[in-house]
């Protein structure tokens, strides 16, 4: 699915999304499950790219379904994420066994091959090649929304999910802290207000008036 003509595409990977943005440089946002490697490669090829064309990867968060292909795609670029999720991907931080979501992440670790790529920890408000990082903790502690203000694209990861055209916060069962996630939705709503497109990890991206719909959800929380 094209999100912005000649600029942004959805990579639909069987229940989870990754995204590709070309603004003169090529950015992959999230990366699917380990078994999605060939699908991601095919999406890249369909767009006229290969893994070597990807200039960077921006992660919304550390979960197997968002980082799973990084080790096998053949990338040669930096990966950007906020802490502690960056450390979880690198293996320097362990998901906490004292949290139900942390336990779930621990269970999935045997399925993950860690990428031999430089992982750069970024901070709230930092800009990376035209994308602004906004801290949105709750689903995971280091969850990040990435906004390309020039193109009107908001990549909000698993703060929300879409079903039937409606948005809802990620449920308690898959959040470190569901209340904090709801607060993050409220906090970031102004940041995505100018976005025509709001693209999430699960469900169909909102392609028109996405920022307004996200803000309406925030107002209802």
CATH topology: Metallo-beta-lactamase, Chain A
**Largest sheet, if any?**
7 strands, mixed
Total beta-strand segments: 14
Classify the helix fraction into a percent range.
10-25%
Give me the CATH architecture, please: 4-Layer Sandwich
Low-confidence stretches are none
Which class do the helix and strand fractions yield? alpha/beta
Strand and helix order: EEEEHEHEHHEEEEEEEHEH
Rg, Å, rounded: 16 Å
Widest beta sheet: strand line-up: 1-2-3-4-5-6-7
Count of the domains: 1
What is the CATH superfamily label?
Answer: Ribonuclease Z/Hydroxyacylglutathione hydrolase-like
How big a fraction of the residues is strand?
A: 25-35%
Instruction: Give the overall average pLDDT.
Output: 97
What is the CA-CA span between the terminal residues? 30 Å
Q: Treating each run of at least 4 consecutive H or I residues as one helix, how many helices?
A: 6
* Top CATH class: Alpha Beta
Descriptive account of the structure:
With 221 residues, the chain is α/β, with parallel strands linked by helices. The protein has a single domain, classed as 4-Layer Sandwich (Metallo-beta-lactamase, Chain A), CATH 3.60.15.10. Helices cover 23% and strands 27% of the residues. A seven-stranded mixed sheet has the order 1-2-3-4-5-6-7. Strands 8-9-10-11-14 form a five-stranded mixed sheet, with helices on one face. A two-stranded antiparallel ribbon has the order 12-13. Helix 5 crosses helix 6. The chain starts with a strand and ends with a helix.
